[in-house]
Amino acid sequence: MFGDLFEEDGDGFSSSTSGTGVKGRECEPPPPRGKIRFCGIKNQGGTCYLNSLIQTLLFTPEFREELFCLGPDELGCLADKDKPEAKVRVIPLELQRLFSHLLLVDEQTASTKDLTDSFGWTNNEEMGQQDVQELNRILFSALESSLVGTTGSSLIHRLYHGMLVNQITCKECGNISERQEDFLDLTVSVRGVSGLEEALWNMFVEEEMFEGNNLYRCSRCEQLVRAAKSAKLRKLPPFLTISLLRFNFDFAKCERYKETGSYVFPLTFDLKPFCEQNNWPDSEYSYELFSVIIHKGGCYGGHYHVYIKDIDQIGHWEAPVSLLKENENSVDAEDPLSVLTGILAQEESKCVLVDQLGQKLMNKTGTPWSKKYKKQYGTISKFLQNHPEVFMLVSNGTRVALKAAVPATTDPSPTEPVSSASANNSTENTEPETAGDTEATDGCHWFDLNDSTVTAVTVKDIEKQFQGKESAYMLFYRKTAMKRPPEAIGNPAYRVPPHLVEMVQEENARLQQRRAEFDASSNSIEVRLHLAPHYHWQNGALHALSPNEDSIITVTFDRRRTVGDLRLMQDLWEGDMALTLAKNVPAGLHLYDTLTDDQISLYSAGVSNGSDLFVWNGREVSGVAVKTGIEWEPVLLTVLRPSAEEMGCGDGSGVGDADGSGLVRSMKGFAGGATLGTVLEALGPQEAFLCQEQSRPGASGGGASGWRVFPPLDMQRTLRELSLKDGDALLLLQPEELDSRCVHTIWACVNVMQNAHRIFSSNFTSLMRKYLFSMQLFLYFSVGLAPSVVQELEIIVEESLTVKERMFLYLGASWHLRRVDWCEEIGEPLTDENASLKEAKVIHGDTLVLVEGRLPPKVLFQKLKLGNGAEVCVERLMKEEDLGLKDLLLRVQMGVPGEKAYYPSEEFLWDARRDSTSRGLYAALASQYGLTPDSLLLAKHLPDKHTWMPISNWVRRERKGEYSIFLDSTGLTLSLFCFVCICMKNLLIDNNKDFNTLEDEIGQQRLTMEEANHNTRCIFSLAFIVALQGYKI
């Protein structure tokens, strides 16, 4: 199970390599230790049980100090492990290195890879989880074998070895027969007992009697006699390990299970009632709990972690969040000073934005500041300023922290500047915090070491491990008489060998160098400085005077430095200097926020790698006032004008026609905060028409684009309010370019009424017709039943646009389209709304009319084979049904258990396409009712015969119309129609396989009587006929 953990040489030496290999250097160095100052252990995939045991041994000070006393002269050196003649004890050496790493290396997690390699484990052992109780015994045995011949050969024996004695006392002669057993851990039962003390009482106090048919043969009496069997503890170890039998076997079910019931174990207890000797000092019987290995999960898998008591007080304990929440009720809600102090004390960063403080107060008290405190104390900002002895405002008054706490703006994030110095400050030696842990009277606190994570816990958290899926699995006690020396308290380097301390110092130096290099590389940014003298204002944005001139200076800067440090680069600028964040947009360079606070860092100011900063006087560039901010970000628009030639005013030379399209195209930039009227004033006279290119809904699927004239009200709206973006096209039309007789304003229905449309002159219409694509149609369009009265519109649409989409462009689904015939009268409607205009045979020049009212649905009565006078019953469905040719709608009834009756029928839709056999029907019904197919029995009802035909082993033959034909095992042909009644019995709760009901039995009797009467009548008729012929019967 545990690889080659036992397979070392007979003398306890190993010459095998560790097999770790050379590991590549990570780009990011490992983080330093947190506030708790403990180091976790990485999980290699399934080694949580090993991690829990290693942490327990580490926080057994006497064990690790005894291990540290073994020097290289006894254990050898890991550097010589590849030499055949060298005697290197790999396992204790790797344990020494791992313990020193966990104690002293400034790293949050350590790896057990080298240790497991020394065990001879492969990837299978590292990825598979094993039992921690068995690992404890195997590891101790391996250590004893490895330390043979050294001063530490008795290490395990001295610390963990105990002895118990089993005695059988003869009730006749008093002879005592005893057998002594050694133990490194006690295995106690969990099943049937309430706790540890009751289990020990049953083991070492209660006697087992041999009497009746179960007598004992006494060696002195030489006969079967009554006797009593008992056990006692003869020798108590300094450290008592107790393994709980949480896993048992259920012989009735033939399966393993985990005992999750309540099992109480004390923090301290006296073993005197369980010992053979009772004349020792009382301190020899007293034990205290210092480690609890916890198993979470079931008997076939789970997770291990450990609760450990910090005996040497080398960690930094802080009250858990759950304990702080419990203490919230003790805060006086009427005192705002107490409430705000409590909020800031619970913050991990000890610093909160003033704007967020009010929200946090309302979350805690349920009442906002304005309603509860403002009348008496003023605003929350004023209250903070009136108590400078308690609160400290930082970051220009935007954040608040407690005066006694060290303020921190924010916790370092993956993109925030990090500092090795600030990280190392968290590991400085401070007095362990005891606030909130009222039960730690001896100054020792409890911690939860869960692989890489280490958190503080309380004694109440230990009590939660008495029962449940997550419960205690191994208990570790130590004698209370074992006191630690004063020099060991708070000193993790106590008794660590000098050569290991030197190795740790070198490792910490390498980590510090890597972190410093990472800090410098991750916080160095390149900033592009744009100097104002090299720029001018054009087209709504800033542009360089000359592309050949070097107008951009790239500097490398530490983003943790302040804006003031960047401003000190006076060689770049003379006079007033303003630094403004800039960004290149399609229109040019635009300015946003100006950096005014010289005390904040570049990171806090929003300067990142590749940012652009504009260096200027803050007012104007080349004599032009420049507006900054997101609201003035320029929009680059495409302005189109009809060419003179297309409007009939040119000489045919095509001057101004850039691409032969009949339109002159130019790019213009305008501030996003400028109004549309300002844009029109800049482009042409106020009398001009400004049109926006618009895409019809569904343009990508056969729609079309057109032009919309901006109404007068839009002239007061800004470009940002109109949602104009870079690249949008605007069409500018001068009044003299239009035929005034053809300018009309259409106020039509629904969507058409909501926008003012203008119809352009025939010259311009012919211009638009020239740009039709091969897949577009030019149509005339009107609304209403009197097309001669309503003004016709000229539209351009895609020929792939469907009739239904064409209606939705204007009025929606409550209208339909009709075509005007050659007599200019409204003709037949376009009935197929899903057909495209091309499929509806709509061509260029056709006139379409929108008529109010929906078309009636199509019903094909011919397919139903209905003749004259046929009666049709129509049922209104609650929801739309879409039955396919392979779907069968059956009525299914479930049998009432123990009765000859059925529950009301339910409609069941069977999709016979997947599996049309009986197995498919069984599977479908089983899935519908949450049963298995084997637990069902089906039958088809034959109402004319009042009988039921069981359904079994059906094979589909063919489908005719609305029914399917099947063959059962007897070869009878059966048919399933829609609405056929299928009855079902659940064999799990109803063993009666008879489907007949009382009504069926009555019906069968009636049919039997009718058949008998029919036979009687036939006999009498036959007799009458024979008598008429003169024959005797």
Mind explaining what this structure looks like?
This protein is 23% helix and 27% strand. Strands 5, 10, 13, 14, 15, 19, 20 and 21 form an 8-stranded mixed beta sheet that branches. A 5-stranded mixed beta sheet has the order 25-22-28-26-27. A 5-stranded mixed beta sheet has the order 32-31-35-33-34. β29 and β30 form a beta hairpin. α4 runs antiparallel to α5 and α4 crosses α18. It holds the Pfam family UCH. InterPro entries: Papain-like_cys_pep_sf, Peptidase_C19, Peptidase_C19_UCH, UBL_USP40, USP, USP_CS. This is Ubiquitin specific peptidase 40.
**In angstroms, what separates the terminal alpha carbons?**
97 Å
Instruction: Indicate the overall shape.
Output: flat
Described by strand count, sense and barrel closure, the largest sheet is: 8 strands, mixed
> How much strand content do the residues show?
25-35%
Rg result: 46 Å
Mean pLDDT, rounded to whole units? Answer: 77
How are the elements arranged and paired?
Blueprint: E1 40-41, H1 48-58, H2 61-68, H3 72-75, H4 90-104, E2 109-110, H5 113-119, H6 123-127, H7 132-146, H8 155-160, E3 162-170, E4 176-183, E5 186-189, H9 196-204, E6 208-210, E7 216-218, E8 223-225, E9 227-235, E10 239-245, E11 247-250, E12 255-258, E13 268-270, E14 286-298, E15 301-309, H10 321-326, H11 336-346, E16 351-353, H12 354-365, H13 369-372, H14 374-377, H15 380-385, E17 391-394, E18 399-402, H16 420-425, E19 446-450, E20 453-457, H17 459-463, E21 470-479, H18 498-523, E22 524-531, E23 535-538, E24 541-544, E25 552-558, H19 563-567, E26 578-585, E27 588-595, E28 612-616, E29 620-621, E30 624-625, E31 634-642, E32 663-671, H20 676-683, E33 689-695, E34 705-709, E35 729-733, H21 750-753, H22 762-769, E36 776-783, E37 793-798, H23 803-808, E38 815-820, E39 826-829, E40 847-852, E41 887-894, E42 906-911, H24 918-929, E43 936-942, E44 947-950, E45 955-960, E46 963-967, E47 973-977, E48 981-986, H25 998-1028
Parallel strand pairs: 1-2, 5-10, 22-28, 31-35, 36-40, 41-48
Antiparallel strand pairs: 3-4, 3-9, 6-9, 7-8, 10-21, 11-12, 13-14, 14-15, 14-21, 15-19, 16-18, 17-18, 19-20, 22-25, 23-24, 26-27, 26-28, 29-30, 31-32, 33-34, 33-35, 36-37, 38-39, 38-40, 41-42, 43-44, 43-48, 45-46, 46-47
Helix pairs in contact: 4-5, 4-18
